[in-house]
Automatic annotation (TrEMBL):
Keywords: Oxidoreductase
GO cellular component, as recorded: cytosol
GO molecular function, one term: oxidoreductase activity, acting on the CH-CH group of donors
Domain (Pyridoxamine 5'-phosphate oxidase N-terminal) ranges: 26-136
Compositionally biased spans, kind Low complexity: 1-10
Disordered: region residues: 1-21
UniProt xrefs under InterPro entries: F420H2_bilvrd_red/Heme_oxyg (IPR052019), Pyridox_Oxase_N (IPR011576), Split_barrel_FMN-bd (IPR012349)
Pfam families assigned: PNPOx_N
Protein name per Swiss-Prot or TrEMBL: Nitroimidazol reductase NimA, pyridoxamine 5'-phosphate oxidase superfamily
Length: 172
């Protein structure tokens, strides 16, 4: 599902080839929707960073992820909800890498959890089938909290030609 609000798009000429223009938001959004793996960066209570890979679903203009309540990232989010999610091709000579900055919010609405559970299964297959619960998701391995990150700022690092695009989203 696509974003309903178009971001302000800027290119920073300091970090790209001469004449390289901004990449379109639709390209970054498609990458976020299709990414098989993303990395979430959170901040521990003592200020140290914590980074871990996870599966994400792009829906209604936001990235969604889930994690067990006892996992480090969930515990970090209890004291600091600011996150960075990254994904891309991880190559220096081709593709687009995307960095999403925003605030993680718990998803608790039953209808939204049902839709997200369906989106996870559609994207990742039946091994990622979740049952929506009062707290988030359940599966044979336990339960998980579900988070939504609406982008505040997104950076796109393109190669060939190299450029850095920044997309800024209006905040509600």
């Amino acid at each position: 599902m696509t974003t309903t609000v178009e971001p302000v798009t800027e290119v920073d000429p300091r970090y790209g080839e001469t004449g390289a223009g901004p990449r379109p938001w639709a390209e970054a959004e498609a990458l976020l929707a299709a990414a098989p793996l993303s990395w979430v960066s959170t901040v521990r209570p003592d200020g140290r960073p914590h980074v871990t890979p996870l599966l994400t679903v792009w829906r209604d203009g936001a990235l969604h992820f889930c994690t067990g309540a006892a996992e480090r990232k969930a515990r970090n989010l209890e004291t600091n909800a600011e996150v960075v999610l990254t994904t891309g091709g991880n190559r220096w000579d081709e593709g687009l890498d995307v960095v999403v900055e925003g605030t993680a919010e718990r998803v608790r609405d039953r209808a939204e959890l049902v839709a997200l559970a369906g989106a996870w299964e559609k994207k990742y297959g039946p091994v990622w089938r979740f049952e929506p619960t009062e707290e988030g998701f359940a599966d044979p391995h336990g339960s998980a909290l579900v988070f939504r990150v609406r982008p505040r700022t997104v950076f796109g690092f393109a190669k060939s030609p190299s450029s850095q695009t920044r997309w800024r989203f209006p905040q509600a």
